[in-house]
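Service request form, structural biology core

Requester: graduate student, group of Dr. S.
Request type: structure prediction, single chain
Budget code: on file
Notes: please return the result as structure tokens.

Sequence provided:
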Amino acid sequence: MSEMIHDTYEVRPLYEACPEVWRDRIEELAQRYKKLYTALIYDIMAEQYHLPGRSLKPGIGPLERGERNGKLAGPAFTSRRCTTPNTDPVVHNIRLGQMKSMCKGCVFVSDVQGNRNCGQFGEITATAMRAAGCVGAVIDGSTRDSDYLIAMGFPTFVRWCSPVEGLTRSMIVDYMIPIYVDGVDGMLRIDPGDWIFGDGDGVVVVPKDLVIPVLEKAEKNFNDEKLSRQAMADGMDPFDVYNRYGRF
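Core staff response, request fulfilled:
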């Protein structure tokens, strides 16, 4: 029998890191975001808030496209790994201790520090995280057990897959802290509570204080796009379409 392990890990509640204006509306906001698409959210941030580059570098995507596994929205629960042969059980089991700091509707986001020699996520971890309220994961690296993750309907966004166990290769060393991931323009900072939105095109990150304003503007543009799309399909001149709806 393996040596007993004990929960001595600090509680750092994600719920408290989320702005009061929306922390009790996570499920509602997630459903509204998932009716949209990442390119639209990116454009709103870049054009109306002068925040270009709020996207992970191309190459990250869902294990499976579609509504069940291919869309993901919620506040970021951040975690950092490091490449190490260390097997210290106190460090190794941060992976378990961090989960009590999660909140319902959160998205696990893992900064793997560029590690490429193993899978840094898996189905058993996802099962435990789902029980803690997590609705999906964004791994700036890889996962194992991809078929199981798809079957259980746990949206997981990764850059590649690997069958290799992480222990003796990579471990979680901290959680609920600012992290950097590989962004389209270099290092992209993600703070706990920033809003994660992913679909078949990739993953964008909305600053936590802009979650509702960006969503409301995106919903308006989304509706305008429906009108302009129909007008073009009906044969209206593209210049007239743009001048009428402001979207093309």
